[in-house]
Design a protein that fits this description.
Blueprint: E1 18-20, E2 24-32, H1 42-48, E3 52-57, H2 60-68, E4 75-79, H3 83-88, E5 92-93, E6 95-96, H4 108-111, E7 119-120, E8 123-135, E9 159-162, H5 165-175, H6 186-199, E10 203-207, H7 210-218, E11 224-228, H8 231-237, E12 242-245, E13 252-262, H9 269-280, H10 285-290, E14 294-295, H11 298-302, H12 306-311, E15 321-323, H13 329-343
Parallel strand pairs: 2-3, 2-4, 9-10, 9-11, 13-15
Antiparallel strand pairs: 1-3, 4-13, 5-13, 6-7, 8-11, 8-12, 8-13, 8-14
GO molecular function: polyamine binding
Subcellular location: Periplasm
Protein name: Polyamine ABC transporter substrate-binding protein
Length: 346
């Protein structure tokens, strides 16, 4: 996403763990390229004089492998679907939420039950929505009133889904009546998988990054997509007739990412909290939104106003929402394996 909005998309091709912007030697942040932007870290700089040091990764499984192999950093960005796998690997230690100044202001819909204790392994910091982006000149609004539009033969060969297992299964769970994947049953998983398998023949492709998706829609090759919120303002700013349907009857999803506290980090634990607190400060809401991300601090998000939230595809909606909260390692691996089979036509 501009970095995180490209979640497992365009940043997946970045060089793994290439260090840069080595400033404050007392804190090393392992992150997606782009999050070193000094505009995101003004509060940290005010307190500590420099931005932290950064090392970069492109894809979370690669990042985990590097950490398990002995690479040392103090904190890392990670998206919710990977958290339990990282926790089970033994590389994390919990945050002390009493030291997180904005903790009480975090959106409860993004925090989830497991982050409500006095210590937590994952603190959500940034989020975005995933919904139906569509060409308003060729697709009537009533056609995108249901997620079953992805099975509509009228649009065969002119639709696309993200090449991202979390986003794809979020769509499929919603389409089959599940709005909480944290406790998905085998039956719900099978129903979601069957839905994706039914949709597969109608797709033109699986898009890998927002730039590719924007091009597919701008050229008219694709009329309908399951898309991150970045696509909506990007195409609208270019004068493209784009709609962003976040309220089909089955609902839409929210992806979220945050920071984890790495065990035995070489730097300052105090500065790790300075970093997290600075990132979550309400004053960060506008600069994060400019990059396409919502901030998990509800007070900060409220400062942006309804118009800005609507333009960014992040306004409150009156429809079910599947928050892409941490899931079990077993379920995520099952989904990953099944998604690869579905994409291959099996």
């Amino acid at each position: 996403m501009n970095t995180l909005k490209t979640l497992l998309g365009s940043v997946a091709f970045a060089t793994v763990a290439s260090a840069a912007f080595a400033e404050d030697p007392d804190l090393l942040v392992f992150d997606y390229s782009g999050f070193e932007d000094p505009a995101f870290h003004t509060k940290y700089v005010e307190k500590n004089g420099d931005v932290p040091s950064f090392a970069f990764f492109g894809e979370e499984d690669e990042a985990l492998q590097k950490l398990v192999s002995g690479f040392k950093a103090d904190v890392s960005h990670v998206c919710a679907g990977s958290v339990m796998k990282w926790e089970e690997s033994g590389i994390l230690e919990p945050w002390d939420t009493s030291k997180i100044t904005e903790f009480a202001k975090l959106d409860s819909n993004l925090v989830g039950k497991d982050v409500a204790a006095t210590s937590a392994y994952f603190i959500p910091t940034d989020f975005g929505s995933t919904a139906i982006a569509y060409n308003t000149e060729e697709v009537p609004a009533e056609d995108v009133a249901s997620l079953d539009v992805f099975k509509n033969p009228k649009y065969e060969g002119r639709m696309t889904l993200p090449d991202n297992v979390d986003d794809a299964y979020a769509l499929a769970y919603l389409a089959t009546g599940t709005t909480d994947w944290t406790n998905a049953t085998d039956e719900q998983f099978e129903a979601a998988s069957a839905w994706l398998r039914e949709v597969h023949p109608y797709l033109r492709t699986y898009w890998t990054d927002p730039a590719e998706l924007a091009q597919l829609m701008a050229t008219g090759e694709v009329l309908i997509s399951w898309a991150w919120n970045e696509t909506y303002p990007t195409l609208a700013d270019e004068g493209f007739p784009v709609g962003f349907q976040r309220e089909p009857k089955e609902g839409s999803s929210l992806w979220l990412c945050g920071y984890v506290n790495l065990k035995d980090g070489p730097g300052s634990e105090e500065k790790a909290y300075d970093y997290l607190n600075g990132f979550l400060d309400a004053s960060n809401a506008a600069v994060l939104m400019d990059a396409g991300y919502g901030i998990s601090n509800t007070e900060g998000l409220a400062t942006l106003g309804q118009e800005a939230l609507e333009a960014g595809g992040l306004a409150p909606i009156d429809a079910p929402i599947l928050a892409q909260l941490p899931m079990s390692v077993e379920l995520r691996e099952k989904q990953s394996e099944e998604f690869e089979k579905i994409k291959a036509g099996f």
